[in-house]
Design goal:
By secondary structure, the chain is an alpha/beta fold. It has one domain (34-382): SGNH hydrolase (Rossmann fold), CATH 3.40.50.1110. The protein has helices spanning 42-45, 77-80, 96-99, 117-120, 136-146, 158-161, 163-175, 181-212, 245-248, 256-281, 338-353, 379-382, and strands at 34-40, 106-109, 148-155, 221-225, 284-287, 358-363, 374-378. It has a seven-stranded mixed beta sheet, sandwiched between helices. The radius of gyration is 26 Å and the shape is globular.
């Protein structure tokens, strides 16, 4: 302060501080109608959706089970559209993303039969194309930038473990009265840690892709789902173990011990691995291991479809092993059929309507026995059946 009565030197006024730069606004999800997207493999693409139960009739509409029957010919495109070719993605019209009761304006199925984690992972992270299509997460990125994605459902990892190969090898061993489970269990033990890392990488990639498009984790639901068992335990088969009709008619050529290992060990281990990935990545988890209980291929209490036609309450919800391609294609074997696809859709709808968390989905035995009569419960409880 200047002394009293003295002249203070004249100083230029200090310039006002420049306003702090306004941070660039964080990008936000696009406005507009909401969209649900499916990513992954055959269990979510809709493989097997051509069929309404199984039958040993091989002509015409096959007792009403073959939805590809036009009345004069078989046209798989009626079910799988442009993806119907052998080896194609087989995105069926009853895939769970299409049948689930979801509050969205649009559903987009990017999943493809035969996909492994490398086909879902973006190209920038080493992902590969499949059937001439870009990696699924790259396609998700395009959708997320132009549409408001509110749900992503993901099923992946089964092909990396070699689930289809396991089924095929066990069927082969049945023909020679050999057990396969010990050999396959050792292979699963060897592969599972690497598969967990691959599934985790896919989830991280999906999260990063959505973030790059302006989404926070709370702007959409990411539902990571496990796999339903196509086989019952060995004690629950319709036919005795040595009956040749397990192959010739029922399409389930498996030893009781191998089936029990698959039902009570392999499928639960896959589910536990996927559950742990979901928990570590903050994703929702949909446990499907018990969803088809009582309606697996050859399960006691179910029958093949007869002349009166399909009835979901008494027939199988999985496609049997069509080992000779005598009806459809071998690749449809051991996948949820149209009944099973609707059950999966019902489960996804229930989880989407519930609070974020981990859930198991099972049949609601207080319901009418239809595939849409499902219920969810906390996954830890579901694990104990």
């Amino acid at each position: 302060m200047a002394a009293l009565g003295s002249a203070a030197p004249v100083q230029a006024a200090a310039p006002a501080p420049a306003p702090a730069p306004v941070p660039a606004s964080h990008p936000a999800p696009p406005a507009g109608p909401s969209v649900a997207v499916a990513l992954g493999d055959s269990f979510i693409s809709g493989e097997g959706g051509r069929w309404l139960g199984n039958t040993d009739r091989y002509d015409k509409g096959r007792n009403g089970t073959d939805r590809a029957w036009t009345g004069t010919a078989y046209d798989p495109g009626r079910v799988y559209g442009a993806t119907a070719a052998v080896g194609g993605c087989h995105r069926s019209d009853v895939a769970e993303i299409l049948t689930a009761p979801l509050p969205v304006a649009e559903r987009i199925n990017l999943a493809c039969s035969g996909a492994e984690t490398q086909h879902v992972l973006s190209a920038a992270r080493g992902g590969l194309s499949l059937n001439g299509e870009a990696p699924q997460t790259d396609r998700l990125a395009q959708i997320a930038r132009t549409k408001k994605v509110t749900l992503v459902a993901l099923s992946v990892g089964g092909n990396d473990v070699g689930f289809g190969t396991i089924i095929g090898d066990c069927a082969y061993d049945w023909a020679f009265s050999r057990l396969c489970w010990k050999k396959q269990a050792a292979e699963v033990d060897r592969k599972l840690p690497a598969v967990r890392a691959k599934v985790s990488a896919v989830v991280d990639d999906v999260r990063a892709t959505m973030a790059a498009a302006g989404y926070g984790d709370g702007d959409y639901r990411l539902v990571l789902q496990s796999y339903p068992s196509p086989l019952p335990g060995g004690e629950e088969f319709r036919l005795r173990e040595g009956d040749p009709n397990r192959l010739r008619r029922d399409g389930c050529p498996f030893n009781d011990r191998d089936a029990s290992w698959a039902r009570y060990t392999l499928v639960p281990r896959l589910s536990a691995m996927i559950r742990d990935v979901a928990a570590s990545r903050g994703a929702d988890f949909l446990d499907l291991k018990d969803t088809m209980a009582g309606h697996e291929v050859c399960a006691l209490g179910t029958t093949q479809v007869g002349a009166t036609g399909p009835d979901a309450r008494q027939h199988e919800w999985f496609r049997f092993l069509d080992y000779a391609n005598t009806q459809g294609t071998l690749e449809e074997s051991m996948h949820p059929n149209a009944f099973g696809q609707r059950a999966l859709g019902a489960c996804l709808g229930l989880v989407a309507a519930a609070r974020p968390g981990r859930y198991g989905c099972v049949a609601d035995y207080l319901g009418d026995g239809s595939p849409t009569a499902m219920r969810i419960r906390p996954a830890d409880r579901a694990a104990g059946r």
